[in-house]
Amino acid sequence: MSRKRRRRGYPVAVLVGLENKRSIFWNVFSNSVKAGVVKTWVDNEYNFFESMVDELRPSIKQGIKTVLLASEDKKKYDGFMGHIEKHQGWMLKGYEFNRVSFQFVQGSARDVDAVMELVNASGFSDKIREAGEGDMKLVMSVLEKRLSSRDGIETLMFSLDEAEDAVYGGKAVEYIITSQRFQEHHRRRVQRMF
């Protein structure tokens, strides 16, 4: 009897548990949550927060723009956000798609059990949806700007063949927007492209 394969889903957010002198990173997918690395306070607050930012960079480059910061104490969230505003302003005021949305989640994310309790809480999915709506508004505003200018509309691709040519040709593609129905009809081609 073969083992049933678990579905991970698509990346949705990064959950960071802020504990005493350490931070625990979790990758949140649509169907699961996967443990990441643990960063510990070594030298001072600045270096600790910078190591957290360095851990977030690869996820941001992949396109995950939602970061949920879980803590029992909101002061830890405020301290990290103060550091972001002062030293990493590009995350909050970045150009077009470089902005990251941060949300505070009341609770602990120190281990698997605490994360599962946090994820199953009623407000968790609302926080992800709220942060995702901000992301979607940003995408829509950029799309509107591109559609209203002659140079911008030439960069848009309106067919799957054009998108495949761009992706397989090595061109940088910012976003691919498809409907659920389209994905159901062209599932394998769309999955290969992503």
Could you characterize the architecture of this molecule?
- With 194 residues, this protein is α/β, with parallel strands linked by helices.
- The protein has 2 domains: 11-135, Nucleotidyltransferase, domain 5 (2-Layer Sandwich); 157-193, no CATH class.
- 51% of the residues lie in helices and 19% in strands.
- The chain has 9 helices and 5 strands.
- The protein has helices at 45-62, 74-87, 90-93, 112-120, 122-148, 150-153, 160-168, 180-185, 187-193, and strands spanning 11-19, 22-29, 33-40, 66-71, 101-106.
- The protein has a 5-stranded mixed sheet with strand order 3-2-1-4-5, sandwiched between helices.
- A hairpin with a 3-residue loop joins strand 2 and strand 3.
- The radius of gyration is 19 Å and the shape is globular.
State the CATH class of the largest domain.
Alpha Beta
Strand arrangement across the biggest beta sheet: 3-2-1-4-5
Low-confidence parts: none
Number of DSSP helices? 9
Return the string of H and E elements: EEEHEHHEHHHHHH
Assigned CATH superfamily of the largest domain: eRF1 domain 2
How far apart, in Å, are the first and last alpha carbons? 31 Å
Give the mean pLDDT: 83
The CATH architecture category of the largest domain equals: 2-Layer Sandwich
Keywords:
194 residues; alpha/beta; Nucleotidyltransferase, domain 5; 2 domains; 5-stranded mixed β-sheet; 9 helices; 5 strands; 51% helix; globular
Topology:
Blueprint: E1 11-19, E2 22-29, E3 33-40, H1 45-62, E4 66-71, H2 74-87, H3 90-93, E5 101-106, H4 112-120, H5 122-148, H6 150-153, H7 160-168, H8 180-185, H9 187-193
Parallel strand pairs: 1-4, 4-5
Antiparallel strand pairs: 1-2, 2-3
